[in-house]
Amino acid sequence: AITVDPGAAGPEIADTMYGVFFEDINRAADGGLYAELVQNRSFEYSTADNRSYTPLTAWTVDGSAKTLDDDGRLNARNRTYLALDGGSSVTNAGYNTGIAVEEGKAYDFSVWARAGAGATLTVALGDAGGELARARRVTARGGWAKYTARLTAARTGTDGRLTVSADRPAALDMVSLIPRDTYKGHGLREDLARRIAALRPGFVRFPGGCLVNTGSMEGYDEASGWQRTRAYQWKDTVGPVEQRATNANFWGYNQSYGLGYYEYFQFAEDVGAMPLPVVPALVTGCGQNRAVDDEALLERHIQDTLDLVEFANGPVTSEWGAKRARMGHPRPFGLTHLAVGNEENLPNEFFARFERFRAALAARYPDITVVSNSGPDDSGPTFDTAWRLNREADVDMVDEHYYNSPQWFLQNNDRYDTYDRNGPKVFLGEYASQGNTFKNALSEAAFMTGLERNADVVKLASYAPLLANEDYVQWRPDLIWFNNRASWNSANYEVQKLFMRNTGDRVVPSSATATPSVSGPITGAVGLSTWATSAAYDDVEVTGADGTRLLADDFSGDASRWTHTGGGSWSVRDGQYVQGDETAENTMVSAGDPAWHDYDLHVKATKKAGK
Ligand code: AHR
To answer: C or N: which end of the chain has fewer Cβ atoms within 10 Å?
Structure first.
């Protein structure tokens, strides 16, 4: 029986409660939400970042050309360029099967080129069937200059190739093809942006995730010249695109930063959501646990964070407000929340640094809510330490993350019922049950009723990850899937949409008796897919009831070995415990399903010293 007390005043539910978390994982940005159709447009792919990369990745040369990184470059950040011999051409293969175009639609080509005055560059778009759009010609003026041309697709194609040829020697960089129609004209792929907008998200958390603060914390340095970085530093991502850095992405590929901080703020505004950026905290998480001890670097990062607030909110007369205005947005973006750090597994080291950021922000921008986090686990010693530190310091809001089984979500509906009503608020920045099936979505819906019931404690919540390009998957499940020509929603998306578009004003207290309880051995698998497990345990072994060895691994080595490739999806199929297998997700079922009960999992693991 369910008893509802309509007269009682439950907690208020903020319109911003349910949002989205965008991270450039699964090629969500380049080849995804960022509408650029040319892959490796600035020839910056590097073997140092990914062993399969060269500056000519995604390009083929007909005739003679070489990539150069010398004083003739376009600018200090855009290092490598292509020197094409006269009479030669270079062709780009795009993403997935190629460049997708739609009959009758216009596509804006641009290129930075250095060629003798009068040289002719020809741009052509074609596929195996011939021409996709009528070729265009531009005439060089001498010296580096930007040339543009508009191509109109004569027919629809998904395997297009873009070819640039030169009649005389020419240096090329920033070869670009972008559909004229992008979401609200702001450079984002329409179908994907529309799917996100249709959720009516209350906030957009960006840009990560693990990609925020993992790896080296150094970045572009005027004095020493270019230095590649893996930590995401917002200043690398703003200004004219040809002057932005590119970066080795934590998820194993190059990111162009064409989708940068300005575009993130713009997108949040376009979908009516509150922007919620995450800045690096100088402690690496995500399996690489290391605290950076460098006072000067810490001070620079803190200053960068203050500058970020100025970029978002400052008047056009301020240094960074003026940069925002020059990019086309004189009005402030209205930043109110900012997170420092993501999933740091060293709570004491993280918190010491977090406090420095928080103090600097409080002194200059006391109205900004500074969000801390509780590390990568949903419970346990690291989580407890992080929460204790956050509570003792009276932090405003703490970011929690967890990727667990559907059973876990069903069993933990009451998770927040016992949270301290006077302590820090919760930002559930990342969560998902491990699969994209209806059952997963249902378990998330059930769990979300618990979030909503506790809306006085849980202030913000976002499913993760948001996007996945089906041909470049690092992590599954994901909310929205796509390739170069189409996109589709998961069942989980429909649940998010249901909650986001029907957010109430206030909780109406209710109670239920005989609520179905769920129990089962599946909880044995919980946590195996988290970074924390890889970092904290050695010799993990999972066996079935009959002693069959389903999974064994020694996570003492390079944790990224499996965190990179596996993602969050673990499931059982044909008696095998498999990782990241979409077809097996149906076996991650509720405890009532007999198929699941065949697998009475037992987990044995040795905790690493000090964890
Ligand atoms: O959402 C995918 C990853 O999961 C995020 O980058 C990280 O924060 C978490 O571990």
So the answer is: N
